[in-house]
From TrEMBL:
Protein name, UniProt field: Phosphatidic acid phosphatase
UniProt xrefs under InterPro entries: PAP2/HPO (IPR000326), PAP2/HPO_sf (IPR036938)
Residues of the signal peptide: none
Source organism superkingdom: Bacteria
Domain Phosphatidic acid phosphatase type 2/haloperoxidase per the UniProt entry, residue ranges: 108-189
Gene3D superfamilies, per database record: Phosphatidic acid phosphatase type 2/haloperoxidase
Amino acid sequence: MRAVRTPVAAGVALLAAFVVLGVLVRGEPYGPDALIGQALHDEWRGPAGFLAGVVSAVLGPVLPIVAAVVLVVAVLRLRHRGRADAARVVTRVLVLLLACRATSWVAKPLFARERPRVYPDFAYPSGHVVSVACTGFAIVVLCLWLAPRLVSRAVRIAVLATLLCAASRIVLDVHWLTDTIGAVLAVCGVGLLSGVALRLLPPARRGVASSA
C-alpha cells in the first residue's frame, strides 16, 4: 500500500501546486515573469525567434498525436501476435497520455491568463509544454513496463525536450515562465494519479515487465 500511496500523495501535491500557481499568476506579471519578459522583449522577431519557432513546431501538439497513433498501431500489432498482456499495458498508457494532454484544454479557460503578446487562446498552462511533457511521461511509463533498461534514457530525453519546448515558447513571447512550470506540474500531477488509477504505477515487478 505504501508504494501506491507515494505516487498518489505526490500527484495531489503537484496538482495543488499547479492550482496555487495558477491563482497567483492570474493578474499582472511580476517577479521572474516580468523580468524575463522585459529581457526577451521583441526577441521573437529576430534570429532567436526563428530558431524558437522551429523548435516549437517540432516539439509541440504534434507529438502526442503521433504518439497516440503509434500506441494504437502497437496495440493492434500486439493483439495480432497474441501478446494480450502487453497490449493491455499499451492501451492503458494511451489513456494516460490522453488524460495528461487534456490538462491544458481543461485548465486554460479556468485560469484565463492573458499571453505576453496578442496571441490566440489563454496562456496558463502552456499547451505546447503540456504536449511534450505528457508524451515524455507516457513514454517513460511505457518503458517502466516493457523496456526497463531504457527508462533512464527516456527520462533524460523527456526532460531535455520539455526544457527546449519551454524555452522556445518563452523566447517567442507567447508564454510566461510560470506557464511552462505550471504545464509540467499539471502533467506530472495528473500523470501520477492517472497512473495509479490505471494500475500503471507503481510498475509491476513481475509479469509483463520482467518478461519483456
